[in-house]
Amino acid sequence: MTGKRHTTDPVASAPAPEPASCAQELAAALERSPALVLLVNAQGATRYASPAMRALAPAGLEALDFSRTPLGSARGLLDEVVGAGRPWAGELPVDHGAQRLWLRASFTPLPQAGAALGLFEDATAVHRAEQAHRRSETLLTVLYRISNTVHVTRDLPDLYAAIHAILRDVIDATNFFIALVDAEGDRLGFPYFEDTVDRQAYDIDNISDPGTRSLSLEVIRSGRPLLVRKDELGALFPGRPGAGVVGTAAEIWLGVPLVVEGKIIGVMAVQDYDDPEHYGQREVHLMTAISEQVAMAIERKRMEQALRRSERRYRTVSDSAFNMETWRGPDGSLLYVSPSCQRITGYSPEAFMKAPDLMEQIIHRDDLPLWRAFVAAPCDNAGESLDFRIFREDGRMHWLSAVSQGVTDDDGTCLGQRCSLRDITDQRTMEKQLRYESLHDSLTGLANRFLCLDRIRQTMERSKRRDNHFFALAFLDIDRFRVVNDSLGHQVGDALLREVSYRLLRCVRSLDTVSRYAGDEYVIVFDELVSPREAIGVVKRIRQVLAEPFHLGDHEIRITVSIGIVLAPTPDLAPEAVLQNANIAMHHAIRAGGNRMKVFNPRMFQLAVEAMTLERDLRRGIERDEFFLQYQPIVSLRDDRLIGFEALVRWSHPVRGVLSPGLFIPAAEESGHIIDLGLIILRKACATMAHWLARYPGQDHLHMSVNLSPRQFSQQTLVEQITCILDESHLAPRHLKLEITESTIMDNAEGALSMLRRLKSLGIKLSIDDFGTGYSSLSYLQKFPVDTLKVDRSFICDMARNAENTAIVRAVVVLAKSMGLDVVAEGVEDPEQMTLLRGLDCDNVQGFFFSRPLDTDSAGALLDLPA
């Protein structure tokens, strides 16, 4: 419902696209579609569930687990969405058979219905991929921390405490112990035991005896991880109550074997006395994955302690057998290399001893200076590390990580340098893959927005350094891409995005960057241009290539694109600002009808800022009740009697003063604020008419005309909203006339017919506004339950000089009379127009000739005049 707005821009005045508004058709479509839809009332009961939703969650809202969300429960959702009227979105788990699925949920309040509408999308694959990614990152982090701990801790107690601290951070392991088999293999000791219940652990003797039972021994004997709950102990140790438990039985116990070179040396275990679900397969996987490194760390520390108890050189050369260990004398000569060198480098210890410079020969030449600096001062470095590349004997390149330690005698004499080297090729490969995935789009393989911004930043830096460096930016959007997804499915949509990406890459040079920015949006960075205008030619070629049909399976799809271009942007701008400018230009192309390109200019930015400011002011204006109504009289030509008013909205802007509808209604339409604004207008207009009828008796023939916007007319809850407003204002429905433009009705004639019939059933009068400017079908016009045709002012203003306009008005009047409708001519401004309209037998008129729009008191005063 709006005041009139008149503009010469056909795009700006075109109605927004209409969704299907027929409830029956929508319900039927949902019954045939795979969409996951759930409608619940304020108590959580299901009012509607689509077939796919019924199959997935027969119990409706109760099947969804809200415990992992801030809402806490389904009741919390209902309070938030239905009670508070706030939409909510998030991820929810649901158990489907033996599977746990994850849904991306979006709940929207339906205030008038006292319900919440939930739309869902299966996000299980994404959720599982994210979990796998997080597990991989967690494992890498733990492995790195344990590896680092080996080098920074001096003895075994420090190592045990550091490992416990790591597991406390990662899996909340408060209760933790390490049990090790002694050298004779007949005793299990607990060198580290931290427990909140049993403060002390007791060694287990005679472990070689099969009759000696404990959970730790079960792990050692089976060589496999063991996850057991308290209620499962009876099955593990049948017929022997309490067997296998040393100390207090925990609610859940998890132990993994510690293995070094195929030999089990002990057990690493965690337990919880309160929560039987504290540990699961994730923790089993993580502890198993790190157990080998923990075992090697323990074994290494054991050897280090043994070495410290004996002669320094013997202890050094007898270090861990897993990593490649070397010892160089103070003069740099190689004194020892461990047998692990063959596994890591492919060369035997003898080869290294025969050719002391063999290490330098196999190191990558780019890393050789780093290595030489690393070993240059054998006694001066302590705990320094270096990652570098070598070429194994088989020719393959591997990454090694080296940690060095200067070795001194008890009196401080330098004995040389001990160096521990381990193969980190798999870790480096994984890191490289993770870096790639973090910078590229998983669907198309193109650069993502982060890499795109980095490429823009790089080319702008080059532009600052070089006077003849030109570059440009293009922001591309596929027009109406949503139609492809909605009609053919997301699988076809994804295939289309991949094919578009391939064609874009064919159109640009290797030094240019094509990125998928979001959804169906792409950004292309043109670098090293001869001139900025060169980018225009490339963009034209892109449009031609993308205009060719796409053959995807059995489907032939044709698309158009809207492109915004920034030519030679100012180097002083931030990359984000350049990208924003290209985006602004692209939206100008979309608003101009799509399938075109627009080059950014500063005025576009100013318009964008103004639009954003206006939208913000609109929201505040609605909140602060800054909108008011004026009323233009409608007069009968038969007896010159006042028969009604049209409500016209005005905005009392705190800075710009009183604004007419043409200055803010388009922005309200585009932003969606027209819904709230329309209800305000309708509520005020009905209240005013009810007040007049009560104050001025004998005016029962009056009606109040109120305009409905296209967005309002498409709302399924419109009838309920109007019913509520009529009840609040105590206005009889016959005194309200709703005006809907001809183009709004004909944009979806079948849906409009249904909505008009529902409105008419309330007893409201209906009028087709701006009649003659659209494309009404006579067959539909006969079906529409309307009362009035309102002739557009464009035909009235030039009637005296344009016979064609007069003929159009005459045709409208004759058509209306034949259908039993009355006619209102708007925009009447002079006596000549009045005379012509009387001659054409027009029923009613309004315009400046009778009165400009009046405030409430002035309009009411007209009702107090004698007839």
Percent helix range: 40-55%
Distance between the termini: 30 Å
Number of helices: 32
Shape: elongated
| Helix/strand/pairing category | alpha+beta
- Average pLDDT number: 84
Number of E-state strands = 32
**What low-confidence regions span 5 or more consecutive residues with pLDDT below 50?**
1-14, 313-320
Strand order of the largest sheet: 24-25-27-28-29-30-31-32
Strand content: 15-25%
Oligomer: single chain
- Radius of gyration (CA) equals 40 Å
Largest sheet: 8 strands, mixed, barrel
Verbal overview:
It is a single chain. The protein is built from 32 helices and 32 strands. It is elongated and about 120 Å long. The strands form 6 sheets. The chain has an 8-stranded mixed beta barrel with strand order 24-25-27-28-29-30-31-32, surrounded by 5 helices. A 6-stranded antiparallel sheet has the order 8-7-6-11-10-9, sandwiched between helices. It is an alpha+beta fold and 867 residues long. Helices cover 42% and strands 25% of the residues.
Descriptive terms for the model:
single chain, 867 residues, alpha+beta, eight-stranded mixed beta barrel, six-stranded antiparallel beta sheet, 32 strands, elongated, disordered N terminus
Question: What's a concise summary of this model?
Answer:
The protein has 867 residues and is an alpha+beta fold.
Architecture blueprint of SSEs:
Layout: H1 10-13, H2 23-32, E1 36-41, E2 46-49, H3 51-56, H4 74-83, E3 88-96, E4 99-110, E5 115-122, H5 124-152, H6 156-171, E6 175-181, E7 187-194, E8 204-205, H7 215-222, E9 226-229, H8 233-236, E10 252-260, E11 263-272, H9 281-309, H10 312-317, E12 324-328, E13 334-337, H11 340-345, H12 349-354, H13 358-362, H14 368-374, E14 382-391, E15 397-408, E16 414-423, H15 425-439, H16 449-465, E17 470-478, H17 481-488, H18 490-507, E18 513-518, E19 521-529, H19 534-547, E20 550-552, E21 555-557, E22 561-567, H20 575-591, E23 597-599, H21 602-623, E24 627-636, E25 642-653, E26 657-659, H22 665-671, H23 674-695, E27 703-707, H24 710-713, H25 718-729, E28 736-741, H26 742-747, H27 749-760, E29 765-771, H28 778-783, E30 788-791, H29 793-796, H30 803-818, E31 822-826, H31 831-839, E32 844-846, H32 856-862
